[in-house]
Amino acid sequence: MRSHLAVTLLVACLAAPAAAVEVDLVYTGPADSPALQGLRLGIDESNRQGEFLDVKLNLSQASGGALPASAIAVFADSPGSIRSIAGRAGERAVFNLSDGADALRAACLPNALHVIPSAKMRADAVAQWVQRNPAGKPSAAAWHGNAVKFAARDLNKRFAAQFGTRMDDLAWAGWFAARAVGDTLMREPSADARRLLELLKQADGFDGQKGDAHSFRDSGQLSQPLVLVGPDGELLGEAPVRGVSTGLDSLGAFPCK
Questions:
Q1: The pTM is what?
Q2: Distance (Å, rounded) from C-alpha 42 to C-alpha 37?
Q3: 255 located within any domain
Q4: Which of 165-174, 179-188, 221-230, 239-248 shows the lowest per-residue confidence on average (mean pLDDT)?
């Protein structure tokens, strides 16, 4: 009798569906920013995935700089204000979507995750290109609206279809941040802000549709390939530049101070 009851309880536990997880996220920045558009696309895509796993992401916009207590992560398009936002966020992850200041990375803020490339990353990418192609000096970017490799073409098409414009650096940063949160929560559903931050910092295989796996360095900077852009906005190539440097650490890596 006891054995039969134990088996029945075990089967019931295994058959019981996992509890649904619904998490709140918040964006702070301009309402017309491409970063917010990218965020919305990333949230939508994460929620379509989450329908099968009972995980749902809710995105709100901060009002007057206040961060709602219910939000377990913050997306910030606020150049010059990341330190302040990170300080107010406590143990919640703060995704920096637009401030490229090297000083922010050197500060190694414990909860700041810098998706947008740093100034040093861009400078290193340009230097590599010039070493291989001395005749021209391009600019470096996180993304290009005409990129086609590594499923970039499909991402560009999805963004253009939804918003009627091309995806740029800010839009990509917003999209990536939303997908990083979504992918992390799909693997380990939880509304615990501290645990989410821990998992984001530990992960080493985020897909940014740019080839090499992306991960966050100790400085909080996202390690990622960059694209090189010509004077007329044309896509020239990628960095690390083949034949010049290898490995993502050749782009803007420096120790925490």
A1: 0.91
A2: 9
A3: no
A4: 239-248
